[in-house]
Design goal:
Helices cover 51% and strands 6% of the residues.
């Protein structure tokens, strides 16, 4: 995938020439120092991992993980410049074993001359396991400082051995402020203002979905046109041939729609829930954000009334990760409809809040000694485990023993409702409560 300002130098490690006036806008706006990188202060700032390494003048191998258009390539290139290292870049999409061997051989020669090499590998997850293993001896010996870039989860795509020798640094999606700053820089560089109303400007930022490269490509198109009056969101959508979400400055529309989706599912209205889901996805909302909210709903508003709801949501996550958009969005629709039509209960949610409150209020009360393990003689002598009733040996597999601290009355945090599967749980708990009274 393209990355923000991603112009890779050749294997000779020479820096790129300054872009000319006809170069793409994203190339002309690429950062010239780490301090100019937008939206990644948690890494490049004085207290960030990269900021600390640069201040110390010592880099360790790292994997830069983040969405497209967030500055991974720029960060790697500027790391080399900031530490005086020779910068060599290869792409796993276009490079093979021969390219790696040459890069490592050149790095060893330069190391002998006292010049360290920063080897940047774009889309490193595209190398297979054997190729990834080939990095290990050179990273361990310090022949190269490896900086890999990936849009995929390193836990799934990279060898454990390579991960153990590298730091994984996570780049964030560019937020509204960062994307707004990119537009401002483009306007200062070109001396032109975007021909957009404030609402259209906000819609343009929202459509970028955190991708700075995509935004600058759209900005370049807009700066090249002549219009009689600033474009509104509808005019912008017509020009760019893209459905633009209409969000106001404080993104109230975003929060209104996710609230409406949640309430429609809670109210068991699958038609309305599907409508609001469609509104958000068509407007360019991040699909995984919507799915995260539906998954939370499965625990908060359905819970044990239908335990399968949570599994449906997690299966939808895996399906979306496997298929991507737009095919994977059908799995999100399925999860939404399942949750909207499932029996509802917030008993687990209420139980969590009540239990957390009691835990904070009661401090560190000791459990009753009969249910404590006694791995040492001393612990046995003072009564740990004495009188414990092993439930599997009891009638009905239920001893009716007390499990609460002596200083605390038994509590009722979880109170299942008489709906769905939870109705069966409620009946089971009533039977146990009667037996506990009889055997207490």
């Amino acid at each position: 995938m393209s990355d923000l300002f991603d112009t890779l130098p050749g294997a000779d490690g020479q820096a790129d020439p300054a872009p000319g006036p006809d170069a793409p806008l994203a190339d002309r706006l690429r950062p010239r120092s780490l301090s100019e990188i937008i939206g990644q202060d948690h890494l490049t700032g004085p207290e960030g991992a990269i900021g600390r390494m640069v201040a110390a003048g010592k880099l360790s191998s790292m994997i830069l993980w983040g969405p497209p258009g967030t500055g991974k390539t720029s960060m790697a290139r500027l790391l080399g410049e900031a530490t005086g290292m020779r910068f060599v870049a290869i792409s796993a999409v276009f490079s093979g074993v021969a390219d790696l061997k040459k890069a490592f051989a050149d790095a060893e020669k330069m190391a002998g001359a006292g010049q360290r090499t920063l080897l940047f590998v774009d889309e490193i997850h595209r190398f297979n396991r054997a190729q990834q293993d080939g990095f290990l001896p050179f990273v361990e010996r310090g022949t190269v400082v490896l900086v890999g870039a990936t849009t995929e989860n390193p836990s799934f795509e990279l060898n454990a051995a390579l991960l153990s020798r590298s730091q994984v640094l996570i780049l964030r999606r560019l937020d509204e402020a960062a994307l707004g700053e990119l537009i401002a820089r483009a306007e200062r560089l070109t001396g032109k203002g975007l021909p957009l109303t404030e609402d259209a400007r906000a819609a343009l930022i929202a459509s970028a979905d955190g991708d700075g490269r995509f935004l600058l490509n759209q900005v370049e198109t807009l700066l090249s046109i002549q219009v009689e009056a600033p474009l509104d969101p509808a005019g912008l959508a017509a020009l760019l041939h893209r459905r633009m979400p209409v969000y106001d400055k404080d993104r109230e529309g975003h929060y209104n729609l996710i609230s409406a989706l949640h309430k429609a599912m809670r109210g068991s209205d699958p038609q309305a829930a599907l409508y609001y889901l469609a509104r958000m996805l068509v407007a360019g909302e991040e699909p995984l954000y919507v799915l995260r909210r539906i998954t939370r709903f499965a625990s908060e508003d359905i819970g044990m009334a239908d335990p399968q709801a949570l599994l449906q949501c997690l299966a939808a996550k895996d399906a979306y990760a496997f298929l991507g958009s737009p095919e994977g969005e059908l799995a999100i629709v399925q999860a939404c409809l399942y949750c909207a039509t499932a029996p509802k209960s917030n008993a687990a949610y209420a139980a969590q809040k009540a239990a957390w409150k009691a835990a904070k209020a009661t401090g560190s009360l000791m459990p009753p000694q009969n249910i404590l393990n006694a791995p040492t003689k001393l612990m046995k002598d003072i009564g740990y485990g004495k009188g414990y009733a092993y439930d599997h040996d009891a009638q009905d597999g239920f001893s009716g023993a007390n499990y609460w601290p002596e200083e605390m009355e038994p509590q009722r945090f979880y109170q299942p409702v008489e709906r769905g599967y939870e109705a069966r749980i409620a009946e089971r708990m009533r039977v146990w409560e009667d037996l506990r009274k009889q055997r207490g």
